[in-house]
């Protein structure tokens, strides 16, 4: 069976799972949100990283039903956490370009929130710049409409690839996520570290929340805090955890 067929079977057999990684506000010293990350547990292939199958899922358009499942599952877990007393938590969900290009994407998002009785501002959609390469105006209109309804938009993997600073003025971005590839340079005073400092400054000046991804060490955390970075996501606080483990982790954290 090729991987495309295997992915369809995986959907039917419910072999997909979400894991969650906390996002910590350093000033408030609180967990403010979680990012939902997709995992495929294949009986034949074992654990398969989304890096391996997202592209295939996009090419075969399986990402549409799969993305809908991700959104619903992440919202269901958020609702559960709100009911357990973690009412302040937000949920970040990765959205593929193909999902965003669906005519009914905005309705799907709003309807999903409504069906769980969740406020729009507790959902953040993570997009990458690849989203912006195609149908630029069309996509911006959609993102603006979502933002107008109070849904947050995060620009993921910022600082890599082709992301241009001018995107920031044209898009309704609420959060900038500094790519984890920058973390190796911290705090060595290299050009990469200088870029991180400037990204933080630009984000703040534009009233965005700035979050650093892939933070593993205390010294990175201290440096980011000193530079005014709001939020941290990374192994330093926790690896992505299965829902049950995340519930326990949250209960233990402060
Ligand atoms: O968690 P991990 O490092 O394995 O994720 C690898 C990549 O897969 C990340 O870049 C992440 O953005 C992407 N990814 C994870 N979950 C999803 C998802 O639900 N949908 C989409 N489109 N991408 C995801
Ligand atoms: O592209 P995106 O930012 O969505 O991907 C996040 C990915 O980074 C996930 O696959 C997650 O498992 C991984 N990740 C999260 N925290 C860390 C970390 O501290 N170090 C490293 N190397 N990877 C991390
Ligand atoms: Na992401």
Automatic annotation (TrEMBL):
The keyword Protein transport does not apply. Keywords: Coiled coil, Membrane, Transmembrane, Transmembrane helix. Residues 1-254 form the EAL domain. One of its GO terms (molecular function) is cyclic-guanylate-specific phosphodiesterase activity. This is EAL domain-containing protein. The chain holds residues 333 to 586 of 604 of the full protein.
């Amino acid at each position: 069976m090729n991987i495309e067929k295997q992915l369809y079977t995986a959907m039917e057999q419910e072999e997909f799972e979400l894991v969650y990684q906390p996002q910590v506000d350093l000033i408030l010293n609180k967990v403010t949100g979680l990012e939902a990350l997709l995992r495929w547990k294949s009986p034949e292939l074992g654990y398969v990283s989304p890096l391996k199958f997202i592209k295939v899922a996009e090419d075969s358009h399986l990402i549409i039903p799969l993305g809908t499942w991700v959104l619903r599952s992440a919202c269901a877990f958020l609702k559960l956490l709100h009911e357990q007393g973690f009412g302040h938590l937000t949920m970040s969900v990765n959205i593929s370009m193909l999902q965003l290009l669906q005519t009914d994407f905005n309705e799907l998002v709003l309807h999903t929130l409504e069906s769980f009785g969740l406020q729009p501002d507790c959902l953040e959609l993570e997009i990458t710049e690849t989203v912006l390469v195609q149908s630029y105006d069309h996509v911006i209109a959609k993102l603006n409409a979502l933002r107008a309804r109070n849904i947050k938009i995060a620009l993921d993997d910022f600082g890599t690839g082709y992301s241009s600073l001018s995107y920031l003025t044209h898009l309704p971005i609420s959060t900038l996520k500094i790519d984890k590839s920058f973390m190796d340079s911290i705090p060595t005073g290299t050009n990469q570290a200088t870029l991180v400092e400037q990204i933080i400054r630009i984000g703040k000046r534009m009233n965005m929340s700035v979050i650093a991804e892939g933070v593993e060490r205390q010294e990175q955390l201290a440096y980011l805090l000193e530079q005014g970075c709001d939020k941290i996501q990374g192994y330093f606080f926790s690896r992505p955890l299965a829902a049950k483990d995340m519930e326990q982790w949250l209960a233990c954290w402060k």
